[in-house]
Every structure is written in C-alpha cells, then in structure tokens.
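Lab meeting notes turned into a lecture example. A postdoc, R.K., suggested we walk through two folding results consecutively so the class can see how the record format repeats. The first protein's sequence and structure tokens come next.
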Amino acid sequence: MSQTVPLADAQASPNRPSTGLAGVPYGDRIAFVVELAKRLHNYGTTAQRLEGAVSAVARRLGLRCHPWSNPTGMILSFSDAAAETPLYDSTQVIRLEPGGTDLRKLCAADAIAEDVMAGRSDLQEGAVALQALDRPQGWRSRVLETLSYGVSSASVAGLLRIGWVDIAWAGLIGLLIGVLHVASLRRPRLQEAEEAIAAFAATLLTAAIAAFIVPLTTKTVVIASIIVLMPGMMLTKYSTQLRNPPLPVRRGVRPTDVTMALDCNSCSRSASGFSSTCSNCTPAQTSVPIVAKVSRKKRAVSIDDS
C-alpha cells in the first residue's frame, strides 16, 4: 500500500502469514482486515483500490478474501489460506455511510497496514492504531480547519484576478462557512443541510455587502467563498470508478447504446422486435430494435440487432 505503487496493482504475495503473524488466531486476522476496510472506505478510497488493498493485506495475513464494495457498505468473505477447502467460511456484511475525503487519515491507515504487513507491529498494535484514528479533533485542529476555509477562499479569489476588496470579503465569508462546518460536526441534522445553508448564506452576505457597504464582483466572490464545498476530490474519485466499471463493456459498445425492449399489451410480439402491424408499436421502435445480452462467462455486454 505504498503511495507510489497501489496495493491493487502490487504483485500477489504467497498465501501464508508474513513473519511474526503465523501464530495469530484466525478471528483476529479477520477483525484487523475488517477494521482496515472500514477506515479505507470512510477516508475516501475508491472501490477498486479498496478491494485490491483488502485482498493484498488478507493474502499477507494468510487469508483468502473476496471483497465487494459499494458506496454504502461492503461484503467481505474470508477463509484460511492453509485450509484445504476452497469454500469461504466467514462472511462479514458491513453497512456504512458514504465515505468522505480525509487524506491525512487515509495515509495514516495506509502506514499502519504497511507496518503490520512488514512485521514492524503486531495485529493488536495495528488495531489500536486504527481505532485511534477515530478520536475527535481537538480545539487546535478545529481552529486550523476553520482558518483554512478562509485562506482557501481568499486564494481562489486571488487566482480569479479580482480586486483586493473582493479578496478580503471572499476570505471573510469563507471563514464564516468554516465556522458553520465545525459547528455541524456534532449536529447531524445541521450537517445534512450544511452545503445548502452555506451557499444561501454566502449569496445573501455577498449581495448585502455589495448593496450596502462596498461594490463587489458578486458572482466571483460567491464562487470563491464556497469553493471548499465544491466536490473536486469526490468527482475525481467517482470518475476513476466510472473508468473502471465492474462489468466491462466490449469495445465499440457504449452503455448509452443499450436499450430495454418493453412488452406491448396489444400484440403478441417477441422480446426481440416490434410488430409492424400493431398501432401501438411506434415506427421508431420498429426501426431500431436492440436487445442487450450479458455473457456470464466473459462478463461483457454485447449488442445483437434483430
């Protein structure tokens, strides 16, 4: 799980525990992999990298693991690599909230897993270190996070080449949004509406300042003020997952080219086409009947014209 070479792309390790882990109970090894998977999900790892990382760590711990991840949960099936049976004897179904993005904790979880795999720490120490990542932020971290909102807004305003007055007000409004964010951390209901409230407050404050205090470049100041709320990292994460779909599509076929044939109640046509004598079957439907077929062996989508 190096930052330069993802675990998902790493070469498979032998199916045996690494040095110092041979005598660890089977259940403890599963518990560590489950805790690691939860943290990787919560801290913003893409589904492909999460599944690859969990499989690689499980191999180093002498486990066979078949992971399946989605934005709201995971299913992890385990078996002991030393067992002769190929069946998975333990399955964990884990329900989770959609993960955010926390690069600091993601790197920390990555380093903890590396230490355990390399034998520099045992599973118990690794589990304690993972649980320590769940500790709430101190007041100093919250103050720095609040200030970062204002600095980010002012910096983006400067990049947009607006005046110093606009930059100052964008930074101040961004600072207020940071205060709102910190206040919502312990208030679930406020946290759900945080983005909407912040956008409304930024627009209202900018319009009031421009009308009663000093003229501003309204649109630019609003964009700079709420720039932290724009999901840049989230868009990057999900675009990566879209480029690597779980169901590969055969070259030359786009997902938008696949349509579903619906049954007509007025005629007894088959699912492969439309009846030309039925008044309810439109000419457009008759001209381009398409049926999507999924091959279980090749796991690819193919298109047949009927």
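The second example is placed directly after the first for contrast:
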Amino acid sequence: MQDCISDAEVADATLVCGSPATIISESDCSSENPEPSAANNMGREPGDQPVTMGHDRMDVVRRYQTFEGVSEEAQKLFEERLRPKTRKNYDVNWRKFDNWCSRREIDSSHASRSVVINFLGEMAAMHKPESLRAYRAAIASARPDLDLSGDVFVAGLIKGARNRCGYPRGARPERWDTGMVLEKLKSWGPWSSLNLARLQKKVLLLVSLATCWRPRSDMGRIFLQSIQLEGDDDWPSAMVLTVSQPKGEESKTSPRINRFEEDREICPVLGVAELMRRTESLRAGRPKAKERLFLQSIPPHRNAAEDTLARWIRETLCEAGIDVTKYSPHSTRSTAATTALERGIPLDRIMESAASGHFGIITSDRRWIQKKSRGRSWSLRERGRKQNRALSPQSARKESKADYEETVTEERAVS
C-alpha cells in the first residue's frame, strides 16, 4: 500500500501552483550569473537560469505565494496554521536537505525529483524510516511542484527502508512494571522533603498514570486556572484537570480523580496541591492566565517545555530501572490503561479519561486492545504466539475470516 503523508505535512502546498523554477529565477537571478555547472544541472530543467544556493524554507514558500498574488497578511495567516514546533521541525529538516544540496553544488529550490530521491536514499542509511517521512514532509512543504506526497517511488523507498529495519513490524513491548516506579518515587521521601525538580517529576509521572494522558502535548498544557481542587487545602479530596488546546482537540477534561487514601506519598491529588503551594511564590507578578502547572526547575522558573516533561519521565523511568531504550515517555499511556483494566476499572472509564489519541492495552487474557486514533472505538486483536509480541492492526487483518468474525463479535460485546 502506498504511503501518504498527513494533511498537516503537505499543507504548505495547498496555495502554490506555480513553477518553482520560474518563481525563484525571477526573484533571485541576475543576468550576470555564470553558466550553470554540471552538478547544478542535476536539479534544474533545461533552460533554467542558475541561482544562488542556500534557501530558507519559508523564503521559498513566500516567493511562491507572492508570485501567485497572495497578500502578506494572508501569507502570515497561512504560516500560523501549524504549531511552532511543527514549523521548527520543517525548517530543521529542510535546512539539512539544503545543506546536502549545497555540498553537491545543487540549488535546493530547483532540485529535481531524482535529487530528492538520492537524498532520501542517503538518509535511509543513517536514520530511522520515520525520519525519511519527516524529510519528505519538509521538502514537500517548500517544493509542492514535485508532488512528493503522491510519488509512488518515494513512497516505495520509505517502505523499503522500513522493511529493511531490524525492528520487527507489529511487535509491541508489553507495559513496564508500575510497582518498580512507584517504589522508587516513595523512596525519594515525603512530599515536603522533595526539592522542586523531584517534586515535579513525581507529580508528572503520577498524574500521567492517573489520567492516561500524553506526557508532552497534554501534560504540558495544563494551566493553573483550569485545575479544580475539592475539599481540604492540605489534602484535597479530589481534583479535575483540563487540558487547553491538546493535540487534535480544543480542550479535554479528566474525570474526577479522588485522593489515594491508601498511601498519601503516591497520591497525585496531594502532589498537585503541594506543587501549586510550592511554586506560588515563584509565579508572583506573572499573568496567572499564562501559568502552567509545571515550571522549569532553575531560575527564572518559566513554564516548562513539552520536551522537558518527556525528558523528566525518561529520567525517572531510568532511575527506577526501566529500560528506556525499549519504552518511550509515551509508554505511560498504554501502561496506565493496561494497569487500570487489570485492576477492574471499566473500559469505558479508561477510554473517557484518555479522551483521544491511540494507544494499546495488553489484557490478562493475552489480547491486544487498540484505541483507534481520533475516535472512541476499540478493537480487540489476538496476540501473537510469542510472549513479547502483539499483533498490530495491520497484521491482524491477515487473520482468517472466522477469527475476524469472532473478533467483531467480541468488539460489540465490549462496546
């Protein structure tokens, strides 16, 4: 099946329909340019004028849009459709392609389809297949004329790199042991004795496990004003959290999270209350509407970046003895959901807490429950024969018709 990149990855191409060779030549070239070299001719059509190498991605995009008659205000609005982190990733990946072309005396703004293919081929030897898709998206955003999203050969190249990858497709690691992590958190001592760095790491991991939320795009967008604590100020009886502008949604709210009476040292409600009390003086004089739950651990204690939160989780898991080469920070979602299901929490409540996205649950009867992306439906899949493998949805489609019908029946029973 042909690989396709998402709408966000190729959205830069939607307003551009002119020839990039024509547009760039008109804006960059002068009559004094020397004759093109043989290397430059690799990336340009016959008759094109040579241009200066080294182009910023957005400069290229703006030239295309200006040539099409798009106003500056419309161009600015078009740039704002993507999150800053996405734009930054596009710029970084385009810069790598542009530098690669410059070392070969090829103008990236005129690079041909074969140049892009050769670039992706070289990157396949040094990076993961997922990185190739990121490079393709960045190049497609600045060079829509190449139609990389619909190029069968480029899609096949990325698929070939994925098939060559040593990690088996469809293999999914089981959840890590929450007991090991909780014991490590308790060994740090009571809440009042923790420094700010450890306090935030502990709260972050406990809240991630309690909500099944994403450690980056969800936990990093919890604002103080959206936190509702109930009961005693010293140890609230419950709390409700709201995420502003999470990935793919406008907002989402957690179910009511009660305090953990059995052990206050791993109670996420007490942890959030303690963190808010501890950081109150650090936030003095700053607009409350912009203050998020987690702060940088060093002065001036600004809002912590989403990648910082992921690093905190990785460091905590590593300290607890979890293999971080096997489990990413995002594994808190599947781990929390699987643990909750095994302890008797109804599947509907787990799905309500997670709210959106995709993650997997390994049940006690060796089944793989996959929460579909951007939806609230669940699918049950038989696990693989090996203890450490579970069938992905793609592999599960290869099951026999009888097994599939049985799976559908079980799906309806769960729903």
